[in-house]
């Protein structure tokens, strides 16, 4: 049954709503397969649990926006209403949606003007942890994001608790990331590391890109520690955390004091589960972890060095009976095991065509030194080159980071595989965002199976807006 008809049936059922008709139409779970949501983008006064109220941007009055939870294969129909004073769009980060639904202004759609609406419609698949966010200007750093969870069609797991934790960096002032606050000096090249705080020169030349701000707080689900609700557990609980880094510029190294974290999935795609002390999460990345509550007490899930003291990112994990204790934070030391891409492998072998890639694109990432601009192959979006692909191609992107900053590179519309010569290709990680560490190389491969023009960029918002982006374009074979 196509979904238009199914919708009609639901509607007529609703119209007939009355005891007599109930049961006439034995609607199974499948019949309720369309999930409809309205997201209203609007300036809203918010607070992060402490500190002043300030004006940010929010979906339905809240930041993060509502958690969208759907079943794999379900049709999602989202009506975006723009009540902002600026245009906006929504991008479904990580989900390979049809190109016109991808939400990149000027590439896949015209931005939705103030006062107008847009209906996004697509099927949610494959299962995994995703998020949605505005792709217009700096709105991602002003509060326009939310979690999008696609549950597997078949129940798996058996967790006693599952929590979605969305991490965000905040400038606590009207306008969020665009507020008039001190900004970091351009970093990178050979100069980067030595430059200290306070040397920011604010915005670049008028009309130029904004530099990254100094953040004042790091929130979990919109709350600064210790003002958010703790995660309450009982001894013996098996807990799943879906961590989403919706931050604009911050990479977190996270540990849970008193416990190890079992990595279950990266960017929503299952890996062979493995235990670590620390997981690293860059902007745009998601990691699903599990822990067994076998060490009663009050603990912190905390990011290393993500800020100073109380302004750092943390969440209390409190066992029943330990409610009155002061949470203990993790101790970071060099002996801890960090989950890197090279320590993990795809859980289900994924067929990856053998043979050399049909196209190889070298992507040199640079910028920062004495410059507010960030480039790929020396060029700035929208004047960057297009990466031409044809349907069915195996395409390799070879990143060379020639700067002193990490760049989490994100490709829209596709999953890519992280090339790892220590593993057979069918075990390569399936991701949509991957960190290219300073002065390092990283290769990814994808199959061109979703036609259109697709945005490809660094997920550091201030790098993206400063030019570090280009387009993957499908041409006739
Ligand atoms: Cu989170 Cu261009 O995307
Ligand atoms: Cu970058």
Record the SSE blueprint.
Blueprint: H1 3-15, E1 34-46, E2 54-59, E3 68-71, E4 75-82, E5 91-93, E6 117-123, E7 128-133, E8 145-151, E9 161-170, E10 217-220, E11 223-224, E12 231-233, E13 238-245, E14 252-256, E15 261-266, E16 269-276, E17 278-281, E18 286-292, E19 298-303, E20 314-319, E21 338-339, E22 359-367, E23 374-376, E24 386-390, E25 394-401, E26 407-411, E27 416-418, E28 430-431, E29 433-436, E30 441-447, E31 453-458, H2 461-464, E32 469-475
Parallel strand pairs: 1-4, 3-8, 9-13, 12-20, 17-21, 22-25, 24-32
Antiparallel strand pairs: 1-2, 4-6, 5-7, 7-8, 9-10, 10-11, 13-18, 14-17, 14-19, 15-16, 15-18, 19-20, 22-23, 25-30, 26-29, 26-31, 27-28, 27-30, 31-32
DSSP summary: helix tally: 2
Query: CATH topology of the largest domain, which one?
Result: Immunoglobulin-like
What's the CATH H-level superfamily name of the largest domain? Cupredoxins -  blue copper proteins
Average residue-wise pLDDT: 88
């Amino acid at each position: 049954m196509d979904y238009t008809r199914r919708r009609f049936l639901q509607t007529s059922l609703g119209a007939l709503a009355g005891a007599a008709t109930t049961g006439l139409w034995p609607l199974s779970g499948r019949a309720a397969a369309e999930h409809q949501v309205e997201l209203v983008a609007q300036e809203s006064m918010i607070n992060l649990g402490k500190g002043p109220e300030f004006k940010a941007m929010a979906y339905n009055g809240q930041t993060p926006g509502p958690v969208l939870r759907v079943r794999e294969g379900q049709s999602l129909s989202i009506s975006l209403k723009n009540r902002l004073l600026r245009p906006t769009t929504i991008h479904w980060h990580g989900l390979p949606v049809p190109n016109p639904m991808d939400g990149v202004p000027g590439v896949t759609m015209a931005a939705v003007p103030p006062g107008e609406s847009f209906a996004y419609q697509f099927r949610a698949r494959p299962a995994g942890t995703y998020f949605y966010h505005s792709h217009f200007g700096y709105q991602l750093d002003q509060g326009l994001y939310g979690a999008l969870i696609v549950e597997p069609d078949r129940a798996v797991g058996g967790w006693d608790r599952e929590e979605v934790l969305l991490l965000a960096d905040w400038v606590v002032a009207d306008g969020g990331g665009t507020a008039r606050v001190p900004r970091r000096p351009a970093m990178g090249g050979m100069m980067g590391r030595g430059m200290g705080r306070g040397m920011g020169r604010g915005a670049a030349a008028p009309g130029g890109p904004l530099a990254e701000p100094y953040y004042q707080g790091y929130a979990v689900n919109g709350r600064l520690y210790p003002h958010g609700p703790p995660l309450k557990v009982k001894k013996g609980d098996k807990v799943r955390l879906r961590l989403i880094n919706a931050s604009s510029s911050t990479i977190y190294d996270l540990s849970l004091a008193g416990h190890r974290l079992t990595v279950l999935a990266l960017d929503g795609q299952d890996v062979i589960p493995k235990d670590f002390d620390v997981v690293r999460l860059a902007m745009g990345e998601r990691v699903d972890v599990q822990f067994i509550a076998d060490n009663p007490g009050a603990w912190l899930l905390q990011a290393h060095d993500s800020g100073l003291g109380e302004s750092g990112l943390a969440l209390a994990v409190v066992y029943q009976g330990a409610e009155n204790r002061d949470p203990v934070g993790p101790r970071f030391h060099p002996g801890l095991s960090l989950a890197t891409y090279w320590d993990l492998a795809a859980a289900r072998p994924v067929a990856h065509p053998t043979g050399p890639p049909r196209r190889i694109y070298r992507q040199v990432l640079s910028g920062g030194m004495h410059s507010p601009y960030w480039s790929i192959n020396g060029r700035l979006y929208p004047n960057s080159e297009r990466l031409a692909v044809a349907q069915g191609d195996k395409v390799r992107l070879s990143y060379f980071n020639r700067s002193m900053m990490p760049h989490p590179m994100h490709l829209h519309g596709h999953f890519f595989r992280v090339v790892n010569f220590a593993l057979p290709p069918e075990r390569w990680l399936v991701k949509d965002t991957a960190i290219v560490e300073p002065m390092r190389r990283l290769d990814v491969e994808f199959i061109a199976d979703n036609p259109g023009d697709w945005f490809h960029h660094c997920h550091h918002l201030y790098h993206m807006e400063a030019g570090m982006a280009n387009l993957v374009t499908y041409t006739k074979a």
